[in-house]
Structures are given as structure tokens and as C-alpha cells.
Amino acid sequence: MSNEYRKTAIVTGASRGIGAAISERLATEGFTVLINFAANASAAEAQVRKIESAGGRAITAQADVSDPAAVARMFDAAEAAYGGVDVLVNNAGIMKLATIADSDDALFDSQVAINLKGTFNTLRQAARRLRDGGRIINLSSSVVGLYQPTYAVYAATKAGVEALTHVLTKELRGRNITVNTVAPGPTATDLFLNGKPEEVVDRLAKLAPLERLGQPADIAAAVAFLASPDGDWINGQTLRANGGII
Fold first, then answer.
1. 3-state secondary structure at position 88
2. Assuming Cys at both sites, which of 138, 141, 181, 186 could form a disulfide with 238, CB separation 3.0 to 4.6 Å?
3. C-alpha closest to that of 108 among 118, 97, 119, 92
4. Best CA proximity match to 229, nearest among 54, 37, 2
């Protein structure tokens, strides 16, 4: 990179799926990447080795994003190791599906804790501590807009993430920090494909006019654009990376 120091990016939920693809892409763009994970240390360490074998730099950073103290410690570790944080990618999230009538308290509370409060926790630290000129990229979902049955609680948490994005954009006025959201559609991750019959996967793949599922690399490319100098003038936006499904 052209900067005098190597920029640092925290990617939450980065040990697998879309988060792993984002961490790999940012590493190829020259960022030192903190691979955040909640519990699966071995997967996070494997991701670090993969990045390092390709010539990049990465370290692991354990933190349950729903725990404010753990998130603060993660930022502390980044500052101690690298002097600060330049990019935050809020990818960590869970999805549990049920109709509103059938959703129990645990389904509601767990998704709010991780998807919404977890994003709030990292945004609060980033608002205080991100270096000027930085980037914040939140992950929403194209279910905000599609609003399918059984997705109510998940969609509500992601709609909340989009609201946080818009407000934080304005609160960071004067610091040259952009805040945007990427909203994937159906994406071929293990988490998405697990348990779905082939005919269901095929039907979902055909929904978008481009007639395929998204790949983690497609989402990583959108995030990398927003994190790059080419994304300087994009601020307060939700980019639906979904092949035109909505």
C-alpha cells in the first residue's frame, strides 16, 4: 500500500464463510487483518495460516461481539499490536428462522444480542477509536427488502444495523470516516447450504436475474471496494450485493 504504515482491519466472524473471504481479500489489498472469532480458535488460526501462506498478514482476535467488554479488549489488542484500527467490518451474525407466532424468546434474544447489539458494540468502539480517514462496513442482508415469512426477527436486526449505519455516518462528520452497509442475497456458504435440499438451492439460485447464488468472493469484492480509495465518496449507503434479486 502507498501509506507509510500498513493499515489494520478488524473483521468480525472471520473464521469461515463470507467473513473468511473478506479477510482474505483485505489481506491481498495490503491490510493487516484481525480475524475475530467467538469460539472456534482452530478455524481462525487456519485462516491466519492461509493468509500468511499467500503473503499477507493476520492475527486472531477472540471476542464474543455481544459482550461489550470483550469488544473493547479486541480494540485494545489491535491498538497495542498495530497502533490503531483503520477498517472495521461487522460480519458476525446468526440467523434463526421461524414465524413470529412460533419465535421463542431465545430465538429473539440471541439474534438481537449478536446481530444488533454486537454491531452496536463494535460501532461504539470504532466511533471512539478508529483512525481518521477510516472505513466502517456493516453487513446487513437483502432480506431487508425481501421480507420473506419466517425471517422477521433476523430482518429486524439487520434493519437496525442499517439504521445504525445512517446515524453514525452523520455523527462522524469531520473525521473523513465513511460508514456503509453491504447487504448480500443468497450466498453459497456452508452455513447457507447446510440442510437445504438441492432443489431448494437451485430455486434460490434462479431468483436473481443473474441466475446463480452469490459467492463469498462476490461479497468480499464489494467490501474491498468500500475499504479502498475508490470508495472514498460512498458514504451512508446500503449496497445490495445480490445479483439483482431485489
1. strand
2. 181
3. 97
4. 2
Q: CA-to-CA distance for 44 and 198, rounded, in angstroms?
A: 29
Segments making up each domain of the chain, as ranges? 8-183+216-236
What integer pLDDT is reported at residue 194 of this predicted model? Answer: 86
Helix locations, 5-114, DSSP H? 17-28, 41-53, 68-82, 105-111
Grid coordinates standing for 86? 483503520
For residue 100, how many other CB atoms are within 10 A of its CB? 11
| CA distances in angstroms from 133 to 25, 137, 178, 179, 224, listed in the order given | 20, 13, 8, 11, 15
Backbone angles phi, psi at 16, to 5 degrees: -160, 170
- Alpha-helical (H) ranges within 83-179 are 105-111, 118-129, 143-146, 152-171
> 190 or 162: which carries more pLDDT confidence?
162
**Residues with Cβ within 8 Å of residue 122, at least 6 apart in sequence:** 10, 12, 65, 71, 88, 90
Judged against a pLDDT cut of 70, whether residue 5 lies above it is answered with: no
Whether residue 2 is predicted with pLDDT greater than 50 in this model: the reply is no
**Alpha-carbon distances of 229 from 33, 61, 169, 182, 225, rounded to whole Å:** 18, 26, 17, 17, 8
Residue 147: active-site member:
no
Diameter over CA atoms, the chain:
55
Q: Which of 139, 141, 140, 121 is nearest to 129 (CA)?
A: 121
Catalytic residue among 5, 82, 151, 154: 154
